[in-house]
Design goal:
This protein is mainly α and 286 residues long. 67% of the residues lie in helices and 2% in strands. Helix 2 packs antiparallel against helix 3, helix 6 (199-220) runs parallel beside helix 9 and helix 8 (247-268) packs antiparallel against helix 9 (273-285). The chain is globular and about 60 Å long. The two termini are 39 Å apart. The mean pLDDT is 93. The structure holds fe (ii) ion (FE2) (2 copies). Residues 61, 64, 95, 98, 178 line the site of one fe (ii) ion.
Length: 286
């Protein structure tokens, strides 16, 4: 599937569809100064780095949107209170905004305003034999508690790295949202760890998934070596910066985020196995 930034009404701009979308994708705080951006002021090499990063972000944001839209249905099927639906409605608005911002960044830098989706890469369905509740819990622990927490940390570093005013606007807009998503994830993650009939079996299965989940996020965070090596590499490439880190910069945020936030918080919500899983991955990475 090719997903396009283009609005249905790009030609005839009065459709409610588009009007409502434009309202929604405006940042919750501040503004994005698209109009004052002059792409010709920047080198092709710097822009190419920006395009690659914002294309990759468009894809991960699209994954978040698809996954969280489905989660919103699933928590309703589990009989979650209505405030879960409200919070998910906000989160899904945010992910639409992030896809839009990422593709527009790519576009204004001269890159494509499309992203290719591969349905097989979405983890949308419960595993064989897994209850819906266990699936939702695992998705929230993985995508929110771990994923959004790491993403918030990466965007915070990317904001410090960004030298281009437009990129600072866009990264700030995403960061406001991702910070909320991470905090929301820990709150609902803790609520989903409250015991019920059959809970211990589900909890143990989730704990057993942690090494695989950690390894997945290490790959997604461009980790290719151990902590010491990673921290010895530059975090940011030279030149004008469109809100990007080097691969090692993302990897560094992974190590820092896992140490400072993710592992202690997983222990706190009732997954003490997180510590051994993390030590195991660190040993493997050297
Ligand atoms: Fe996002
Ligand atoms: Fe998010």
């Amino acid at each position: 599937v090719t997903f396009r930034l283009a609005r249905v009404s790009d030609a005839e701009d009065e459709l409610l569809l588009t009007v409502e979308h434009e309202r929604l994708v405006a940042p919750r705080k501040g503004e994005v100064r698209w109009a004052s951006f002059d792409a010709s002021a920047y080198s092709d090499a710097d822009k190419a780095v920006g395009i690659e990063a914002w294309q990759a972000r468009a894809l991960t944001e699209m994954h978040s949107l698809a996954l969280f839209t489905q989660l919103a249905t699933q928590v309703q099927l589990l009989g979650a209170p209505l405030d879960w639906s409200g919070a998910f409605a906000r989160i899904n608005e945010d992910e639409v905004r992030h896809v839009d911002l990422s593709l527009r960044m790519s576009q204004v830098l001269g890159g494509p305003a499309t992203v290719e989706l591969d349905e097989a890469a979405f983890h949308l369905h419960p595993r064989r034999g897994q209850s819906l509740r266990a699936h939702v819990r695992q998705t929230i622990v993985g995508a929110f508690c771990i994923g959004e927490t790491l993403s918030g940390r990466m965007f915070r570093r990317a904001l410090q790295a960004a030298t281009v005013p437009l990129a600072r606007d866009v990264v700030s807009a995403v960061l406001v949202d991702e910070t909320f998503h991470g905090e929301f994830g820990w709150e609902v993650g803790a609520l989903l760890m409250r015991p019920h009939d059959g809970f211990e079996e589900e909890r143990a299965a989730l704990a057993a998934q942690l090494p695989e989940l950690f390894a997945h996020f290490a790959r997604a965070s461009c980790v290719t070596g151990g902590r010491e090596w990673t921290f010895a590499q530059p975090e940011v490439a030279p030149g004008e910066n469109f809100g990007t880190l080097t691969d090692e910069g993302y990897a560094r945020a992974f190590f820092e985020g896992m140490d400072a936030d993710v592992v202690p918080a997983l222990e706190a919500i009732g997954l003490p196995e997180a510590r051994a899983a993390w030590d195991g991955l660190l040993a493997k990475l050297g």
